[in-house]
Amino acid sequence: MSSDKKYTSIHYATYLELHKLLDAQHPRSKELGQEAHEETLFIIIHQVYELWFKQMIHEIESVMTMFRTNNVHERNIDEAVLRLERVNEILKLLIQQINVLETMTPIDFLEFRAYLFPASGFQSFQFRCFEVMLGLKLEKRIAYTSHKYYKEFSPEEQLTIEELEKSLSLFDLIQSWLERMPFIHFEGFEFKSKYLHAVENMLKKESDAIMQSEYLNSHEKEMRAKMNGDVSTFFKNIFNEEFHNQQISEGKVRLSYNASIAALMIQLYGTEPLLQLPCRLLNTITEMDELLTNWRYRHAQMVMRMLGRKTGTGGSSGHEYLMETVKKHQIFIDFHNISTLMIPRSDIPELPDVLKKELGFSFSQK
Ligand code: HEM
Questions:
Q1: How far apart are the C-alpha atoms of 170 and 61, rounded to whole Å?
Q2: Domains (range + CATH), the chain
Q3: Of all atoms in ligand 1, which is nearest to the CA of residue 97?
């Protein structure tokens, strides 16, 4: 009898708790004055965002759990990629939804905006959790209030954020997974000198193309050659661990030296069977960072359209503050920067047979 019980039937509305969900839209304009038609859209769109934030946190949390171990299983990487790809699809939706909101005109928004102070998306607890879980650090945040951003939340929520701030983020977990890649320390493979030789070849070809161009005058050629020289110095420093650590201490780079070299190797040799999934993982994370930045930019643009130069209900300068976050709140920027280090496929140093064989079937962590 009791075993049958778990299959009792349920109604669609009960399962989805629609009575709660559909009874959660109460325009303040109706309560406090004349109902503004557009306020329902404004409420629903924010609620939908919060639901998607919940789903994204659910996915990120599960991926972080997979990477909290010192021995990440390949099967987990596949699952992690699928879940992160789902997050990316949700982010695309979030960007698109702004179009729906923009069917509201700035003048219609003013019909109810005065009822919203000091409420703001700035107080979205879930959005902050998402950012912190990915790895946005307190000291990197653009601050426009004298208090920490999470002082906006309830005491329990503040505790949760403080805990999250102290724990390892997705960035930290991916970084230590990269640091554990065994093949970066492979004996007898002269990757460094071969790679630098290939870089020199690539830069020489570019330099020849500049010098032989019929479209550039001599001053332009000189400038381009100088820029090429700077790029060459940049490449030479790639394997300078001390220089890399100096860049980290100056806040110019975040990803550790070993993790950066592993990320470079994964991108260069990403077609080797055992590196295909790690390569997809890095690309998915880079895309996630890009999509979040796109959302920030799209939201800032929409704010400019709705408010112009007006300040935000949460007390920031509005568009200006949001544009600063577009530039400064990117988390995985070092993953994007790996592209600087790419060289043509034809110039990539050949892997020794024994390493090729290793990357062909089994892959184990230290
Ligand atoms: C008419 C529509 C909107 C306007 C005018 C607007 C305006 C603003 C402004 C001015 C800020 C900066 C903080 C402040 O001073 O209030 C802000 C922050 C924010 N808004 Fe919106 N917003 C709108 C719609 C949305 C929607 C639909 C969401 C989805 C949840 C959203 C999420 C956020 C988030 C997460 C922040 C914090 C961004 C950060 O600090 O990095 N906003 N919004």
A1: 9
A2: 28-358 (1.20.58.480)
A3: 27
